[in-house]
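Consider the following input, taken from an annotated entry for Aldehyde dehydrogenase family protein (Saccharopolyspora montiporae).
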Amino acid sequence: MSDAPERLTVAKTYTLHIAGAFPRSESGRVRPVHTADGRFLANTAHASRKDVRDAVTAARGAFGGWSRAEAQHRGQVLHRIAEMLEGRSGQFAAESAATGHRSPDEAAGDAAAAVDRLVWYAGWADKVTAVLGGIRAVPGPQLCVSAPKPAGIAGILAPGGTGLLGVVSVLAPALAVGNTCVLVADEEPLPVLTFAEVLATSGIPPGAVNVLTGPLAELGPTLAEHADVDLLDPSGADPELRAQLARGAAASAKRVLDPPPEDFSADPGLRRLRACTERTSVRHPAAAP
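Applying the prediction step yields:
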């Protein structure tokens, strides 16, 4: 028998994802994550309000390049994210199952569904303009040509209890149409933070997606009140927090989505793609008959 002492397992400390880097929280706070049977599993960063502000600054810096990129290129990047996620699907399933949120089979199915949802939105990236835009007649010898454009910086509160599929379902449509995002996740942080590692190696510009973990009630109001956030998706907030966020967002006149309870396993349709865009219109003289 070997006399070597038993090796201690090195617990991982998950950090935030801001501007393509992985900083620890400015506050230095962490939140422990335990397995279903109570064993310590890992530490996750507890983001601060300054981390939110840093993430919004990073998203604004990346917006010009990502929003002006060819739609086909954005679709290719989303497809690459799906490829990278599928290559690590076993890790996602293990992290989700270890914390007891779902069974191993359910966790594996959640990872596979998230991959499929990314591929679905990747295919829509270069079709949104044709489907949501159009030409219509207006009074006088003119035509009105309209086309969707990204809303800008999207602040997203990730839905809880929906696994990786729910996170991808709220993030992917915002990215597909050219928004840059600040995603705040509270429940099941490990798969979300591992997803941030996937994003960092997918070719998406640094700052296009920034991932923070911490209590939604603490970080959500800072995101809602930030004047440089253009669109707020409070999918993960309860009704009381949603009302508070709407009041905070009113000062900067930002758009606040009001998503109903969703079955993310169902066909998503175009609702979120439409909600993440604004419409720009130009009048053009009509040809003489």
